[in-house]
Amino acid sequence: MRSARKPSASRWAVYLLCGVLGAAMPAAAGLSSPAAAAAAAAATTCTSSGLGLSCTPENGTPHFPLGTSSTFQIRQLVQCGSTMFAVGHFSTVTGFDGQTKATKAYTRNNVFSFRATAPFSMTGWNPDVNGTVNSIAVGGKNCADAYLGGKFTSVHGTAVSNIAKVSTSTGQVETGFQHSANGQVETLLLAGGRLLTGGFFTAINGSTRKYYVSLSPSKGGDTGYLKLNISGHYSFSGVSENGTRVYNQQLSHAGHRVLAEGDFTSVAGKARKQIFMLWLGPHQATVTNWYSSEFNQNCYRTEPFYVRAAAWGPTDNTVFVATTGYHPNGIPVAPVSTRTGLCDAVAKFSATETSHSHSWRNYTGCDSLYSVVAGSVTVYAGGHERWASNGHGCDNAGPGAKPAPGMVGLSQSEGHVTFNPTRARGLGADDMVLTSAGLWVASDNFDNSQNCGGQPDHSGICFLSKG
């Protein structure tokens, strides 16, 4: 799923000085030999991935208008039936009007929906949320209900606090569902007839259960299914302030397990940092023994929480994580030796319920990744990265680095670059959704970023269909 946080000011300063916003940095910087420089400078030619994805995005998907002075961002995309739902931080969306057969600007505050197939017509659904929506879950008969979580106080004119259940036909709040969280809601997931809800809150809908709670989809009350006593935050010398929270979550394909990422040190009495795995029992969820000591590593002090996204492999036997973190704390940026740890990387783990080390890692060279999803043979990751296979560089292309701005596809078996359509980097690809039709990528318009696969008019959403 999603995650979008601007990099630290120090990291943007480096990028600006290097002149790399929206483009790959010259690959020869910091290379150890002319041969290595030539290899890194040669961009990987985009060819169809293992799923047969096109390197060129579909035209006509909704996007943010060019020239706006505001930074708009899609935080999450969800498909239910034939409709795609998008949430984030925005006020205007350019999309196709199915009645007039023309493209026009729509006023949409932080939520909208559109048809999942060409010509991707906008719907009339308009909940009009007055603040950022971080997450959406859609369910009910015929996708009738949408659950919204974020930082807001009004939906369709009704006073709420950070969470709401909304009709997907009228956009109005369903008032029978309680709608009050005392802190920002960051992730929502419908699983087993429950609404698993995570965030910064310490009280929600009458419950004092903190950070992660199972809510009734009909009334919104605490079902008591999650009793995890989550606590702690990351503490080491010079670390930035960071608060306990559950940030992201992913349901296994079989529907029996959940991965959850966030800022914590203890879950159900077990030592856990960055991520944990839940078994969804019939009456209560339990924390499994799946874990890795690698998640205990401290990355750079301004990015203490860095495992922002995870994905299940296609048979639920593997787990992939995508991280921020810049570089290991206390390790100088230059000169760079072989990178260690999980900071700014995609990594593969076994999903068997015991302690593990990674199977492979692919480093960006100190650029953040925010999203990851796994297909049958290819793992797709997105962020504001400039390179892949860059384990010997940090803010420069080291030996063997491959230019891969904005998104990349990696071999599931070995972690090598196999798919490289490229995307304008902006803040970073905050969500990726793989459907039977193709790969949806959520993004933003920061620094006027709009290109995907070399094509314009894709700020906010890019769709690479199966060919």
Overall residue-averaged pLDDT value: 90
**Count of distinct strands:** 32
What portion of the residues fall into strands of 2 or more residues? Answer: 25-35%
Structural class: mainly beta
Q: What strand line-up does the widest sheet have?
A: 14-15-18-19
Overall description:
The protein has about 475 residues and is mostly beta strands. Helices cover about 5% and strands about 35% of the residues. It has two helices and 32 strands. It has helices at about 10-20, 35-40; strands spanning about 75-80, 85-90, 90-95, 100-105, 110-115, 130-140, 145-150, 155, 160, 165, 185-190, 195-200, 210-215, 245-250, 255-265, 265, 270, 275-280, 285, 305-310, 320-325, 345-350, 360-365, 370-375, 380-385, 385-390, 400-405, 405-410, 415-420, 430-435, 440, 460-465. The protein has a four-stranded antiparallel sheet with strand order 14-15-18-19, with no helix packed on it. A four-stranded antiparallel sheet has the order 20-21-22-23, with no helix packed on it.
Features:
4% helix; four-stranded antiparallel sheet; mainly beta; 2 helices; disordered N terminus; single chain; globular; 467 residues
Describe, in short, the structure shown.
With about 475 residues, the protein is mainly beta.
Write the layout of secondary structure elements.
Blueprint: H1 9-18, H2 34-41, E1 73-80, E2 83-89, E3 92-97, E4 102-107, E5 111-115, E6 132-139, E7 145-151, E8 154-155, E9 158-159, E10 163-167, E11 185-191, E12 194-199, E13 212-215, E14 245-251, E15 257-263, E16 266-267, E17 270-271, E18 275-280, E19 285-287, E20 307-312, E21 318-323, E22 345-350, E23 360-363, E24 369-374, E25 378-383, E26 387-388, E27 402-403, E28 407-411, E29 417-419, E30 431-434, E31 438-442, E32 461-465
